[in-house]
Design goal:
Radius of gyration: 44 Å
Order of helices and strands: HEEHHHEEHHEHEHEH
Largest sheet: 5 strands, mixed
Number of helices: 9
Structural class: alpha+beta
Number of strands: 7
Length: about 290
Amino acid sequence: MKKTIILLGVSTLVLGSCVSKKKYVALEKQYQDTKGALQKTAFEKKELEAKFAKIEQRVENYNQKISSLKNYNSSLKEENNVKLDMVGNTAVISNSMKEKMRATLTKVDAAELANAKTLKDSMNLAIAYNLKKSINSSELENSDDVNVDIDKTVVMISVADNLLFNTASYRIKKKAHKLLQQLANVINSEPSMDVMIEGHTDSRSISNAVLQDNWDLSVKRATSMVRLLEKKYKVDASRLIAAGRGSSVPLVENNTAANRARNRRTRIVILPNLDKFFGMMAKEETIEP
């Protein structure tokens, strides 16, 4: 009997010990699984934080771009009040510019105004009025060899060759300086205009150590005038254009001495720079629409 009881006790202890070990192993496995899950969660958390930081940066960049575009748009709206934009062959101006132009057109002759059918016509009339007001062409009409013509928005002043240059020369005569001073006064009187100096020759050929042909002569005559207008008479160089036409654009046939003399000329073309013109109008007192 005693042996039986002892055996039962030993068996119970052994069995109890086995159950505890299994639980320990199970708990250990559960602990390791939990630890692994936590590590995975921590890693995923770091990845999500990095992604979120990138998203935040992108949002900040977009906000900055939006802010920049808003500022740019505001700037464009301000510029639109004084800026003339060209789209194809159509001029597009702001409402405030149209009001300024209308104010100018009230001073234009009614008969001329009646012929203005388009926005371009109206702009031409406004510019022509401004030109005629600024330029006293009678100052230049002191010789049969100087011809002044105002055609809408373009002033064309043609000066005979004999007033400016000796035969086959591109050096300006000293006696021509008075005329150039008068030209400079006309040019400087209207800052919204650009100026093109065109040299023209007759058809007789020329060739020497300096000049290869009439193209060379016409260009050098134009650049001689441009240099003098800039350096001596203080015309802004950015407004000056030098062009040589050689004998390619004759006024008459080159068949007589008199005709050849007519073809030898320098033409000063005063061209409207529309951006400058309307920009200057914008500086005047604003007329509210």
